[in-house]
Backbone:
């Protein structure tokens, strides 16, 4: 199966390992991965700040970049949600609506792709430790992916999953919210860090780099002994 | 025939709404058939006895005592309850059902116990209110009863004052078993049909579910605020 | 009290809220209870999604035909001997109400809970005209006694106060000498207010749903005060926002079921009271005269716009009860009697961006509100839409953001620019990095690193590594 990787700008620049883990994982599962090099960003930062016209420019660019692909897979619930929103955003645009819809229909968040398209629930991963999983808002509420990550994680050998108290709470990232409304964001992320501590886990797993940068950044600042991992890296672990 | 009221400012106000809605005023609208109608699924096909059970269970949740009896025992039960509550003053509706259910001698029976019973006086306005305001118990029949929510429905009318179920400290409702329906849907539909036929809606329809309460102080449930502090229902088999 | 509350700027209100440890504890535990109540009530039904869809369908049909249903309502109210006044502005509404009260020579007005009367500042207008106005909802009364402390929630207005604070207010203002037990506080209110009800000559209520087909007003309450207000005084005035209407009893029933479940997790509240006109001939209690005031006050401007569905709101507060931002900053931070997500959408529409332009940004767009709303209003999308309007129509966004967004679109719409931008990142930020972390960043990063670390950009981007990997594998 041929899949095109949409790696997202955060991973491209800051979390390169997650990108590599995603490629390796997909290859292990028998996919042929290509990385369209012209890809940039899904447009979410501009879109969520109200700069729709500006966002549309990068959206159109991304539609073109992935036009040739059979499947587009991304290790980010939030950016995947953004692609899925494109038809809504280009509604009524004779040139772009159809093309946006085609992209949306073939876009999958990584765990969603593995479980729903590949039909795999055990990827053969091994990782020793106790972990908890952060259900990010866009991925669960807007994309509707709730079961897939839990299924995959429950089959990782050696990994004990603990429930995250109040897992429905937002971590306080919210893109530019995190820098515009810093004081509120701080309260929210503190609450999340507290929940992670209360879970008793030593590893925090998530499927969205934005959330993980936010929670992880706060965990580091507070020097908590909790390791933050992207789910792609967990699923690609073999030790 | 009652006087017709006035409507002020109506046309300019409604014209403006139509203008903002981008069309001419509409003087006739057909209400659509709603696509989803889950309200009819609740307690669908339940027997009268099933409904009694549902009602009894719900009463526990809404802090309401519930008793079951037969017509011939009703008077004895009510007298017993009045004594048990230590009541000295009782106000009731002026409603033919009191006689039908053998309750016309209630005041005589109770006068031996130093209990004063006031039947709603269709002629006297102020003394009804004055008596009810300090009465220990108010008694009415239920005109319709909702199993799901533990609700008695009261239609105001000449002998059926609003204050009887409101001002006394204890409210006692007599529920003829045949009045029990699954939920509010059935009663609302019946009233809707009457309106369509051109019947008058009672000036006051009260759906009462247990005693008055409030959660305004720290979200603690306080039972008994402005209305009755206690509510008791008696289901009477009227077959 | 009008819609606007407090004079402090947004930032200060927020930091006051965050510093109010008691308020935050109270709100957080209340949210927990609201949440489980709502979820249980929804679960019980088994098909909550169908209920929500029905609610949405009813609301959008009604608002789409609002002129028709209001006309029908007013005809039916007048047929039953009631009077209807259509008020385009707050002023018109207050003038009419004051006039009715004057004509009746009213001295004492008792009120049940009504947000729209707060919005139009009715109490003050009546007080100026020499009337005594008494709030009778327990929460509202507490606030009134406490020198008109503003409400912080649309269902439980005194949510920000604890029982000790309430005890002290009662003691200082009314000579209360019992404990802070909620039961004792409520009993005190019952006794005090009972006297007021019996003496009042005018009763004023809000309206949860007006029923067009019969000219009926329905009130959804727990305490019994709305029944008092509509049973004892000789004159009743009901004030409704123009959108609070349904076609028939059947829809009223559905929306009441949605409202009570979503608001407090109850199947029904203790009292649903449906009132049609003044009392009938031969009836002993109930008002002799009935007036219905239908208020626009800026709502009609929302019709026909992309924001129209906010008029579907049934004021259940479910969105407020799940909102994490509300939890941390409290109701007063919103500077409006309408707080939380619904307030962040509605307040700028009714009160303007000048006053409320920060509110749409006070959200992570986590969509918890949208998920909770019983009539499926896409609240987070409305917040986003506000941001668009602010940027594109109003041009009021902060300057640095505007510039960085320009850079953004240049950088992401063109791969060449993205390439340069992302390549430069490590160099640009390198000076700030230590052990792969940035803890005191420049520009917009400054706010980020105030509270958290930021990862240093990697020397090689993923795309560079990917290329290398490909080469190594001889592809
Ligand atoms: S917007 Fe929806 S959830 Fe919020 S108060 Fe209105 S109806 Fe309730």
Residues:
């Amino acid at each position: 199966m041929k899949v095109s990787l949409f790696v997202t700008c955060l991973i491209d620049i800051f979390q390169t390992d997650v990108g590599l883990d995603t490629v390796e994982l997909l290859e292990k599962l028998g996919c042929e991965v290509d990385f369209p090099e012209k890809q940039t960003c899904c447009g979410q930062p501009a879109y969520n700040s109200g700069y729709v016209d500006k966002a549309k420019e990068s959206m159109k660019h991304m539609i073109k970049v992935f036009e040739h692909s059979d499947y587009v897979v991304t290790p980010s619930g939030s950016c995947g949600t953004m692609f899925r929103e494109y038809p809504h955003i280009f509604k009524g645009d004779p040139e772009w609506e159809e093309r946006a819809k085609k992209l949306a229909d073939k876009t999958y968040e990584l765990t969603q792709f593995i479980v729903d398209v590949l039909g795999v629930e055990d990827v053969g991963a091994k990782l020793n430790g106790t972990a908890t999983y952060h259900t990010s808002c866009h991925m669960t509420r807007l994309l509707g992916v709730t079961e897939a990550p839990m299924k995959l994680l429950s089959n990782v050998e050696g990994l004990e999953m603990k429930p995250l108290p109040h897992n429905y709470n937002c971590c306080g990232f919210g893109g530019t919210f995190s820098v515009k409304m810093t004081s509120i964001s701080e309260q929210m992320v503190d609450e999340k860090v507290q929940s992670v501590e209360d879970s008793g886990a030593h590893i925090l797993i998530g499927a969205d780099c934005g959330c993980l940068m936010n929670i992880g950044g706060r965990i580091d600042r507070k020097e908590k002994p909790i390791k933050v991992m992207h789910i792609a890296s967990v699923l690609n672990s073999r030790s | 025939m009652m006087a017709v009221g006035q409507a002020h400012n109506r046309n300019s106000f409604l014209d403006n709404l139509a203008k903002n809605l981008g069309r001419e005023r509409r003087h006739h609208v057909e209400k659509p058939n709603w696509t989803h109608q889950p309200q009819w699924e609740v307690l669908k096909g339940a027997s009268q006895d099933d409904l009694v059970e549902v009602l009894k269970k719900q009463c526990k949740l809404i802090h309401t005592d519930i008793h079951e009896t037969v017509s011939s025992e009703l008077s004895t039960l009510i007298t017993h309850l009045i004594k048990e509550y230590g009541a000295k003053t009782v106000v009731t509706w002026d409603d033919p059902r009191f006689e039908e259910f053998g309750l016309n001698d209630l005041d005589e029976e109770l006068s031996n116990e130093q209990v004063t019973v006031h039947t709603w006086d269709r002629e006297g306005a102020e003394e009804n209110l004055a008596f009810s305001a300090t009465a220990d118990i108010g008694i009415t029949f239920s005109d319709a009863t909702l199993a799901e929510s533990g609700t008695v429905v009261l239609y105001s009318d000449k002998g059926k004052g609003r204050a009887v179920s409101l001002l006394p400290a204890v409210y006692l409702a007599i529920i003829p078993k045949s009045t029990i329906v699954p939920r509010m849907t059935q009663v609302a539909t019946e009233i809707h049909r009457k309106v369509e036929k051109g019947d008058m809606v009672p000036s006051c329809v009260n759906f009462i579910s247990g005693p008055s309460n409030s959660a305004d102080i720290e979200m603690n449930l306080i039972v008994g605020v402005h209305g009755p502090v206690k509510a008791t229902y008696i289901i009477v088999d009227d077959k | 009290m009008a819609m606007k509350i407090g004079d402090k700027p947004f930032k200060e209100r927020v930091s006051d809220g965050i510093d109010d440890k008691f308020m935050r504890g109270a709100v957080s535990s209340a949210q927990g209870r609201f949440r489980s109540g709502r979820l249980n009530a929804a679960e019980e039904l088994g098909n909550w999604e169908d209920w929500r869809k029905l609610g949405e369908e009813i609301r959008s049909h009604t608002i789409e035909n609002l002129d028709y249903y209001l006309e029908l309502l007013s005809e039916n109210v007048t047929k039953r001997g009631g009077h209807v006044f259509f008020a385009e502005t707050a002023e018109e509404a207050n003038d009419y109400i004051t006039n009715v009260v004057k004509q009746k020579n009213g001295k004492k007005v008792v009120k049940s809970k009504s947000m729209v009367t707060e919005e139009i500042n009715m109490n003050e207008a009546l007080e100026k005209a020499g009337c005594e106005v008494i709030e009778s909802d327990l929460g509202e009364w507490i606030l009134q006694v406490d020198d008109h402390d503003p409400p912080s929630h649309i269902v439980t207005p005194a949510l920000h106060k604890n029982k000790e604070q309430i005890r002290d207010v009662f003691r200082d203002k009314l000579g209360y000498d019992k404990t802070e037990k909620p039961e004792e506080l409520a009993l005190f209110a019952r006794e005090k207010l009972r006297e007021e009800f019996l003496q009042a000559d005018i009763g004023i209520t809000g309206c949860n749903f007006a029923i067009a087909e019969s000219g009926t007003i329905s009130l959804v309450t727990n305490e019994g005060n709305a029944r008092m207000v509509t049973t004892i005084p000789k004159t009743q005035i009901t004030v409704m926002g123009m959108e609070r209407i349904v076609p028939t009893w059947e829809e009223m029933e559905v929306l009441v079921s949605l409202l009570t479940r979503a608001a407090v997790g109850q199947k029904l509240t203790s009292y649903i009271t449906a009132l049609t006109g003044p009392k009938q001939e031969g009836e002993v209690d109930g008002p002799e005269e009935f007036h219905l005031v239908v208020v626009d006050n800026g709502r009609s401007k929302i019709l026909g716009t992309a924001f129209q569905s906010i008029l579907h709101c049934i004021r259940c507060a479910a969105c407020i009860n799940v909102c994490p931002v509300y939890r941390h900053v409290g109701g007063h931070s919103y500077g409006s009697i309408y707080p939380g997500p619904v307030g962040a959408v509605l307040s700028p529409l009714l009160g303007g961006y000048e006053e409320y332009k920060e509110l749409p940004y006070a959200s992570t767009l986590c969509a918890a509100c949208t998920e909770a709303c019983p009539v499926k209003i896409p609240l987070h999308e409305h917040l986003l839409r506000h941001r668009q309007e602010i940027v594109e129509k109003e041009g009021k966004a902060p300057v640095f953001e505007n510039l960085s967004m320009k850079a953004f679109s240049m950088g992401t719409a063109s791969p060449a620019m993205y390439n340069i931008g992302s390549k430069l990142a490590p160099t640009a930020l390198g000076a700030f990095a230590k052990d792969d972390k940035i803890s005191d960043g420049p520009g917009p990063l400054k706010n980020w690193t105030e509270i958290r670390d930021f990862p240093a950009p990697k020397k090689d981007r993923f795309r560079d590594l990917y290329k290398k990997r490909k080469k190594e594998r001889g592809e």
The first helix of chain A runs from residue 9 to 13. The radius of gyration of chain A is 17 Å.
